[in-house]
Ornithine carbamoyltransferase (Collimonas rhizosphaerae), 304 residues
Amino acid sequence: MAIKHYLQFSDFSLDEYEYVIERSRLIKRKFKNYEPHYTLLDRTLVMVFEKNSTRTRLSFEAGMHQLGGAAIYLNTRDSQLGRGEPVEDAAQVMSRMCDVIMIRTFGQDIIERFATHSRVPVINGLTNEQHPCQVLADVFTYIEHRGSIAGKKVAWVGDANNMLYSWLQAAQVFGFHVNVSTPKGYDIDPGQVAADNQRYTFFANPSDACEGADLVTTDVWTSMGYEDENAARLKAFDGWIVDQAKMQRAQPDALFMHCLPAHRGEEVSAEVIDGPQSVVWDEAENRLHVQKALLEYLVLGKVD
Ligand code: CP
Ligand code: NVA
């Protein structure tokens, strides 16, 4: 049977997401009640980081421990990947010693090559083009707060980056709409969006994108790997801050999300991220719960 990987959001069907979301709810409840849920006893996760991380590392490592398994952290600096070992070879070796692998790297092509040579499931812990685990946590967070996300309107104000592309895939799977506003010169790359994706609309004006939104979300203006462009981006993104004025264009009960880390005063005002509509800490926590369900599903399949 073909190995199931999670390299981008569109890798799972709605049916699979419905299952994973139900398991996430159950696993979260067990975690909160200190009930054991050792479904991955004696299994091992290898985590490969070619970029920095706080949430992704913590949530995968703690999650694997809580499922009864172990997690091993590798980074480019002190593994042979940093000395040019081909990803194809690394995939062969790592996947003979563990049950599942998570990678945070640069190009999506790298994780795809890795997965092709892996004997075990591979999870995307962020690439330049995709951040599916975060959007899974965000969709779960929306559902927890407001119920079904189908038919809702999400406003994306900011960079056309990995988070946006995963949101656009999620919109197709779950049936919601994304209003996108990015500054000139930082436009959506059509190569990163499925040709049949009709679930988004572009707005030149970021405030207009927020009109009537059920959820307003943004991310850093300079993603990891693009640090050289920071000064130019600060100028180009002037006006794209999510502030109270933009939130007021959204629905009165709109949520605000940000995958974190955030820069108050750049992509979001302190008033918004620290205000009553913000659910950023729930999003961060939910990384733990949804990824435990994801690990379990990839390693064991459906368990009930
Ligand atoms: N949101 C997120 O992926 O955070 P880290 O970069 O800290 O893992
Ligand atoms: N878009 C950001 C997300 C960080 C979690 C980045 O890629 O750096």
About this structure: The chain has a mean pLDDT of 98.
